Amino acid sequence: MALFSDILLTVDFDRTITAPDSTIPERNLEAIRYFMDNGGTFTMNTGRSVPMSMRNIFGVIPTNAPLLLYNGSAAYDEKTGTMTRFAPL
């Protein structure tokens, strides 16, 4: 069993994973890779829409679970480009 198996970690995008200047510190990316390399499941959550997330999250932040978008009302699999769950608020 891996160190972080059976653990899902989700982190807010704006001002949590990003620095005050909206950049993503390399140290944060290294921590995410370490977590995933040791069996953890990681995703981002944000109030942003799919188009807004495409500019900042897709392909930039490593994830291995669907992104939680629209303030948690949608789960989006960036690898397949599909909405896996959607609950209108």
Which sheet architecture does the biggest sheet show?
3 strands, antiparallel
Element-by-element helix/strand order: EHHEHEEE
Tell the overall outline: globular
Number of helices: 3
Compute the separation of the termini in Å.
Answer: 38 Å
Give the fraction of residues assigned to helices: 25-40%
Which structural class do you get from the secondary structure elements? alpha+beta
Tell me the radius of gyration.
13 Å
- Total DSSP E strands: 5
Parts with pLDDT < 50 across at least 5 consecutive residues: none
Mean pLDDT: 93
What is the percentage of strand-forming residues? 15-25%
Strand neighbour order, sheet with most strands: 3-4-5
Summarize the structure.
With 89 residues, the chain is of the alpha+beta class. The protein has helices at residues 13-17, 26-37, 50-56, and strands spanning 8-12, 41-45, 67-69, 74-77, 82-86.
Account of the 3D structure:
With 89 residues, the protein is of the alpha+beta class. The protein is built from 3 helices and 5 strands, in the order βααβαβββ. The strands form 2 sheets. It has a 3-stranded antiparallel β-sheet, with no helix packed on it. The protein has a two-stranded parallel sheet with strand order 1-2. It is globular, with a radius of gyration of 13 Å.
